[in-house]
Amino acid sequence: MAGATAGSKTPGALLAAALAVVFASLATAEAAWKGYCQISCGRCPCCPTLDSVLKDKGLGMFRWMLNFSDEGEKTRMPGYMATLLAPTDGAIWAALNKLGYSSKEAVEKDKNARDIMADLGRYHVLVPVEPLKVP
Question: Where is the signal peptide (predicted)?
């Protein structure tokens, strides 16, 4: 909104902007105050991103599948909260083979297959129904 002044913003918007600046300034886990890291800040070893957990667990095919939708990018965001129903690599290959695909390259070249992978990825990510509130 061009020409907007601080006085024209709602109090909620101003608070959100101020909190964003404060949280962005926390460069290390040590800089965070007690109670900040409620779920996942993604900045310290105790709070990995969902994508790094998938990588550590060897779920490369699921990570690949998520990248056909916006879910792949979201799982790389620090603090993103969702429940992932992560199928094994074997399960994803079984589904691809059943659909007639034998390689990642064949899927990547076929728009229909990419759309199917995007849908499957979205079906395996459950976001909270209502925002979580920290007391």
Answer: 1-31
The answer to whether residue 12 is domain-embedded is yes
d(CA 65, CA 75): 12
Virtual torsion, Cα 80, 87, 129, 19, nearest 10 deg: 0
Q: Kindly state whether residues 55 and 16 are assigned to the same domain.
A: no
Residues 87 and 28 in one domain: no
50/23 same-domain check: no
Nearest to 23 by CA among 6, 1, 40, 5: 40
Q: What pTM value is reported for the model?
A: 0.64
Q: Two tokens at 126?
A: 């459950």
- My answer on whether 63 and 23 are in the same domain is no
pLDDT tier, 129 (very low <50, low <70, confident <90, very high otherwise): confident
